Amino acid sequence: MRICPWLPLLLLLVAPLAAASECPVDATSMPVKRGKLLYFQCIACHALTAEEPAKVGPHLHALLDRPAAAVEGFAYSAPLAAAGFAWTRDKLDAFLRAPQELVPGSTMAFAGIARDSDRQALIDYMVVATSPACAAP
Ligand code: HEC
After folding, report:
1. From residue 81, how far is each of 88, 102, 126 by CA, in Å?
2. Around Cβ 118, how many Cβ atoms within 10 Å?
């Protein structure tokens, strides 16, 4: 039997392409571990899955690129309901730095996280913990 000599090369080319549509964050990285600790500030108000019972805030399942104020049945504030953007990493970073600056009048009672690296770690963790493509950390 003859094995196609191009097969290993093909696999090498295809593997990174397949990976690109998978989890965008390394779930075992240090920032994700730090982000998990930082998430304790959010856990009382936000579930990470859609199945958990509702809390004070909306669940964050599949948060990355989700339109703002999109959880069915959650009573959002008028300003967040009218925000008209999706939760990219940049928007999350701005919201978590100063919720009232990005969405004045939002009912999220949270002052914000000042340190840039802390917000990035928290976002890394949330992406891993809420993206269907990522294994839970
Ligand atoms: C005291 C409760 C509370 C805490 C603590 C809290 N949130 Fe919220 N969060 C809310 C509420 C309520 C809303 C809805 C705000 C609105 O409608 O203006 C919200 C909205 C959000 C949204 C927008 C969701 C959507 O569907 O558009 C994100 C993202 C978010 N919070 C992330 C976080 C993160 C991350 C933390 C921790 C750093 C956190 N929140 C801490 C209550 C809280």
Report:
1. 16, 13, 21
2. 18
Is the shortest distance between the CB of 85 and ligand 1 below 6 Å? no
Find, among 12, 11, 40, 36, the residue nearest to 134 by Cα: 36
Residue whose tokens read 């009912």? 107
Q: Is 68 in the pocket of ligand 1 (CB under 6 A)?
A: yes
What pLDDT shows up at residue 17? 47
Of 116, 111, 107, nearest to 98 by C-alpha is 111
Pocket test for ligand 1, best of 36, 41, 42 (most atoms within 8 A of CB): 42
Each residue's pLDDT tens digit, 91-107: 999 999 999 999 999 99
> What Cα–Cα distance (Å) separates residue 130 from each residue in 40, 94, 126, 136?
15, 19, 6, 8
Whose structure tokens read 């600790």?
Answer: 37
Give CA–CA dist 25/45, Å, rounded. Answer: 24
Between CA 99 and CA 93 the distance in angstroms is 10
